[in-house]
Amino acid sequence: MPKTIKKVAVLTSGGDSPGMNAAIRAVVRTCAYHNVECLGVYRGYEGLIEGDFVVLDARSVKGIINKGGTMLKSARSKEFRTAEGRQEAYKKLKEKGVDGLVVIGGDGSFTGALVFNQEFNFPVMGIPGTIDNDIFGTSHTLGFDTALNTVVDAIDKIRDTASSHNRLFFIEVMGRDVGHIALNCGIAGGAEEILIPEEDLGLERLVESLNKSKKSGKTSSIVIVAEGDKIGKNIFELKDYVDENMEGYDVRVSVLGHMQRGGAPSCFDRVLASRMGVKAVEAMLDGESNYMVGLKNNKMELTPLDSAIKGKTKINLELLRVSDIMST
Amino acid sequence: MPKTIKKVAVLTSGGDSPGMNAAIRAVVRTCAYHNVECLGVYRGYEGLIEGDFVVLDARSVKGIINKGGTMLKSARSKEFRTAEGRQEAYKKLKEKGVDGLVVIGGDGSFTGALVFNQEFNFPVMGIPGTIDNDIFGTSHTLGFDTALNTVVDAIDKIRDTASSHNRLFFIEVMGRDVGHIALNCGIAGGAEEILIPEEDLGLERLVESLNKSKKSGKTSSIVIVAEGDKIGKNIFELKDYVDENMEGYDVRVSVLGHMQRGGAPSCFDRVLASRMGVKAVEAMLDGESNYMVGLKNNKMELTPLDSAIKGKTKINLELLRVSDIMST
Amino acid sequence: MPKTIKKVAVLTSGGDSPGMNAAIRAVVRTCAYHNVECLGVYRGYEGLIEGDFVVLDARSVKGIINKGGTMLKSARSKEFRTAEGRQEAYKKLKEKGVDGLVVIGGDGSFTGALVFNQEFNFPVMGIPGTIDNDIFGTSHTLGFDTALNTVVDAIDKIRDTASSHNRLFFIEVMGRDVGHIALNCGIAGGAEEILIPEEDLGLERLVESLNKSKKSGKTSSIVIVAEGDKIGKNIFELKDYVDENMEGYDVRVSVLGHMQRGGAPSCFDRVLASRMGVKAVEAMLDGESNYMVGLKNNKMELTPLDSAIKGKTKINLELLRVSDIMST
Amino acid sequence: MPKTIKKVAVLTSGGDSPGMNAAIRAVVRTCAYHNVECLGVYRGYEGLIEGDFVVLDARSVKGIINKGGTMLKSARSKEFRTAEGRQEAYKKLKEKGVDGLVVIGGDGSFTGALVFNQEFNFPVMGIPGTIDNDIFGTSHTLGFDTALNTVVDAIDKIRDTASSHNRLFFIEVMGRDVGHIALNCGIAGGAEEILIPEEDLGLERLVESLNKSKKSGKTSSIVIVAEGDKIGKNIFELKDYVDENMEGYDVRVSVLGHMQRGGAPSCFDRVLASRMGVKAVEAMLDGESNYMVGLKNNKMELTPLDSAIKGKTKINLELLRVSDIMST
């Protein structure tokens, strides 16, 4: 029979994403609903080691559901990768009487949580918060939908100027290892080509495809490039290559950068965050540990943390095909 | 063996929704991709009867993926409900050599398509376009996600002024028969109460709940009301009731209205529209008819039109519970 | 020689508007810059009478420049209209050692400030915060520019659905006594007609004008109506009149309501708020009192509070003419 | 007595800016209002030389007031800098019976117009369209206000992630020769420092100022850098310098790029464009030539083209001071 949970701590860790505040709010209010105390931990595992806590009740999280970033701040902690660091963190939690820990973050953060659980048998639950959508066990990570809308809005703006000038734009979006943002935003932004880490189009085929676009009557073009695209050139080298190998285009580069991480979360991300926060706390109160909550087929489901970490989310091949057809 | 499709017509019908233009574009480009001709029909079934057609090629739909509304315009046609009207429409399609018809709209539009097919054995495919998300066979209708973001943005703005003045706002959102918009936006907007057609909270319980909110320290409140809420009072009567039965609140009403139908579609709706357009045309080229394309578990699936029309989409009870917990 | 100001109080009063938080921040930071203490007063004159104060330093106003509403909340105070109420307010300010008061609000709030100054010779400065832009002595009030963008965004969305359905929309915007919002947004939203409190178009001419629009080939129309339009019918009566006297239009009504008051302030309003806050505090430190700060010809200028209250801002006749020409 | 103008041509030239479409619409509809014919010229002076014209009537410009970019497309023309090019352009205009030319663009475009007028005594009028706000004779150029809001929205998003991680961000905004965008957006975005072409802060003082910020309790910082900032380092070199000379900050760079040129124009820019279009055409019909229309003290005024070209718009020193005080 599981030990009764009476006090839960919550932290955000790794790169921030829109919806993290909404998830914090949901964790705190679900605790309040079940008469469980709740502590916020500042700056992820760093703050855990330092004992940088704050008491959170239902009113403390008022007005944050629509704020980007994380009110608890986030960090990457080297110390938590050491046994001493984790020992210190455990001590701090025990001092405060905390019984369970909810970690909002990506797979690096979950790895830390899992090791921590294994060492101290301390209940942990994960909520997937990252714009990259690269976590196994959920169709959508927190912040992914918001980031898509931010990127598409930027592409729309760039399209205005591209089509006024018959220009070719390379637009870099986030995604070192996965092309989810690039692929969705490429389709939604009406891109002529999408370069993702999962697929090597090759430079020749890129130029060929752009030439075909041009012949079909297109006077401006947009190519979406994920940070980690397979061609293995950075976006400025791509521009140079096309400058040398294509005529009639004025080629420009835009790197969207960190604005992709911020902004008010979309309705989808706020609802998802609320559902995930409820599920994470209630699963923990039911005696579960070492799970990540996720969205599967529009339902909340639990996935073991180690599967979430090891698993791979694959690119949807149907979307690749849709992209090809749409750039006809 | 199915007859080969060589020319497809596409129309939008019923209330417009964001993403309809993106779906038209997808239908047109998929036709182009498969070397099938494509005609657009203006003003839904009205234009079909009048033969108000336009030839659409890949370039004709340039720059519309991010536009709200529908370039083909929409209408509700009384004449298409008569056998004579449908006979005339059939004649016009035959004259133009059209082999198949894609209908983008809601269940009323699908009923028309189904009857038309039964009378003339004419291939039809449906794409669910409505902000209400009330169509069986797809987890999301085209425009639903965009409408959610529009509504949540409006709630955020009203919240600014509500909390500056310690006010109670009743906000009416679309949804005569279903509470999907109200429920999602209520959660995402941090509403204290959500009144939907599927559930009768009762006026006494509403006041009780608002009083509880107030005692818990909330100084302003937002109640989201679907057009067709079960309490059976219109939103101004609700205000009057609360004015008479609660003290200490300045009660206001806001009816969001038709702006919910417009605006640039979200990334989600653009991708969904693109996928649906591809699927609808390719299914038709494969010899299918009388289906609606839909999103199920993140995959494109076909649902027989009669199931789509008769089926009911139920409110997600989990969301009701999340809403209760979040308003703690 | 003016008494040295060592402690300033700031409050927001009347209807809230976007930019009020930015103005509070500017007042607080200008005080900090000049080593003057600053107190915030909650709920306008109500809080002044109750002594509901909060110490504000440069860090207290972090992260509010982009927030709608007012962190100090606002209210309308009946008690401050009585001599006893003002006496109590004066007592509370003296107890706290406050030397000067900055009032962010509209003309009602300025009237209160002026009376207060006359009774107690207490230094007061006004910052014009209202979306209506109806205050003499400044080309722009705080929040006006933001409200314009909010309204135009809503009109754009409604236009999407209007033009998809060949509809005529009456859209009501704020402005009981002045038509600034209606006139600017009408031009920017491409409205066919704009009804404002300053001008009586007459119902017959409205219908005539709409008929002319229709004949010129327009298939949908938008009429912007200020709350206080001169025709003297409310917007639903307007719809009924047009329904009876025009054919071929499906007429709809949308009342934009309180969302016009909220939202993140525009760049213009944030810069204006910052400039006004600096000017208000520095003028006070220079010994000035009973002035409102305002924008004139892109410069900060002082206007005596009584002129600001009594003066009238007139509608720009050039804009009326531009509107007529644009609806050609 | 001036020759009667019976046919006007309009073109957009140079970098595009939001509001150009609204200005085209205003020129076209003002012509229609006065029964003057109107031709659109594609791709600026390039299209003029090639005779790439389109007839525009009141209905041709429907639905473009809220679109970014320019429907007439823009270009920079080398040929128009030659006497032969201009001779050819003149010939094309005469062939079509055009009597006057409205040029929407920046100072380069105006220089072309002026030379053209001097050579052929052809009536020309300028409308200042550029996001940089660097044209003498108008307090605001078309697109400036929209660009400000686009930049501030991006800064808000970056601020979310900056403050979640205690980061220092250098954000590059447009402005090679003038710091208007940087200065306004720096204030509105709550930047700690603003680097502009007009002022050399010096690297040491920058680091000093950031250190002071940090000591005052700020945990994240944003520095806005105009493209042409005076320190003379590009933004990546700035980052390197700070990385080496400051501790405790994780320094990041974001270059906002071309998205600053696009997007739906703000209400302000749409109204301004409408006013400018009316004024430009009506001034020309009144026999004027060689002027630029501009906004001065909220009124439409004419400035001789040569003054507009030679004049310098200075940075508002008051804003620099406000920026200093706000970063207290």
TrEMBL record, chains A, B, C, D:
Regarding activators and inhibitors, the annotation says:
Allosterically activated by ADP and other diphosphonucleosides, and allosterically inhibited by phosphoenolpyruvate.
Q: What Pfam families is this protein classified in? A: PFK
Question: Which catalysed reactions does the entry list for this protein?
Answer: beta-D-fructose 6-phosphate + ATP = beta-D-fructose 1,6-bisphosphate + ADP + H(+)
Subunit structure as annotated in this protein's UniProt entry: Homotetramer.
Name the NCBIfam families on file.
PFKA_ATP (TIGR02482), PRK03202.1 (NF002872)
The organism of origin for this protein = Pseudotamlana carrageenivorans
Task: List residues of the Phosphofructokinase domain.
Answer: 7-283
The principal location of this protein is cytoplasm
Binding locations of ADP: R25, A26, V27, V28, R29, R159, G190, A191, E192, K218, T219, S220
Family assignment from sequence similarity: Belongs to the phosphofructokinase type A (PFKA) family. ATP-dependent PFK group I subfamily. Prokaryotic clade 'B1' sub-subfamily.
Protein name per its UniProtKB record: ATP-dependent 6-phosphofructokinase
InterPro entries named in the record: ATP_PFK (IPR022953), ATP_PFK_prok-type (IPR012003), PFKA_ATP_prok (IPR012828), Phosphofructokinase_CS (IPR015912), Phosphofructokinase_dom (IPR000023), PKF_sf (IPR035966)
Swiss-Prot/TrEMBL GO biological process terms: canonical glycolysis; fructose 1,6-bisphosphate metabolic process; fructose 6-phosphate metabolic process
Which parts of the sequence bind substrate? T130, I131, D132, R167, M174, G175, R176, E227, R252, H258, M259, Q260, R261
- Kindly list the positions annotated as binding ATP: G15, R76, S77, G106, D107, G108, S109
Q: Specify the pathway.
A: Carbohydrate degradation; glycolysis; D-glyceraldehyde 3-phosphate and glycerone phosphate from D-glucose: step 3/4
**GO cellular component, as recorded:** 6-phosphofructokinase complex
What functional role does this protein have? Catalyzes the phosphorylation of D-fructose 6-phosphate to fructose 1,6-bisphosphate by ATP, the first committing step of glycolysis.
Q: Cite the binding residues for Mg(2+).
A: D107
Q: Which UniProt keywords apply?
A: Allosteric enzyme, ATP-binding, Cytoplasm, Glycolysis, Kinase, Magnesium, Metal-binding, Nucleotide-binding, Transferase
Q: Which cofactor does it need?
A: Mg(2+)
Location of the protein in the cell: Cytoplasm
- Entry's SUPFAM superfamilies? Phosphofructokinase
Quote the EC number.
Answer: 2.7.1.11
Look at the named UniProt entry and state the broad enzyme category this protein falls under.
Answer: transferase
